[in-house]
């Protein structure tokens, strides 16, 4: 009985691991139409909260939401974003721990200039790299960047080099990160060395620890 009681007490003290999906279905004046966990759209005014999701501000088709003290910018029509999840990733202000997924790849949700993306760690990539479709989805003005020639399996193609305002992984935010936008479609945003070089990296079995350099 005492063992069972200790176990129950430990469960009550353990931090909850939870997540929600949030999407913006549209806007009506000063209200955003939120879809939380695939439910029916709910009209939520600025400053109001629905199922733990607070609408902080709106500008055009962009809506800033807040969940558990963390803010995220979503746009109308974006794919549902996972918020509030702590599964598979731990972080502080200077440290991120990633766990390898199927195939041994390290993937994680993060943000570029406040927009949600899905990263895959690629130590062979010189810079953060993405396809044109993803760059357009998150509103990058990549065509204002420097034109570069890129070698692909189908020959040489033209890409663009630019500097991202900021890249967030977990609670770690890095500013002024070089990126390459390619006309070749990519399933992930490759988290290359223009970001990774800011960290001391250590890998043990299926975990990768990134410690920010100061």
TrEMBL record:
EC number(s) recorded for this UniProt protein: 3.4.23.-
Coiled coil regions in record: none
Transmembrane portions of the chain: none
Pfam family, one: gag-asp_proteas
Signal peptide extent: 1-19
Example GO BP: proteolysis
Top EC class for this record: hydrolase
InterPro entries named among the record's database cross-references: Clan_AA_Asp_peptidase_C (IPR011969), Peptidase_aspartic_dom_sf (IPR021109), Retropepsin-like_bacterial (IPR034122)
Keywords from the named record: Hydrolase, Protease, Signal
CDD domains the record matches: retropepsin_like_bacteria (cd05483)
A molecular function GO annotation: peptidase activity
Protein's UniProt name: TIGR02281 family clan AA aspartic protease
Gene source species: Rhodoferax mekongensis
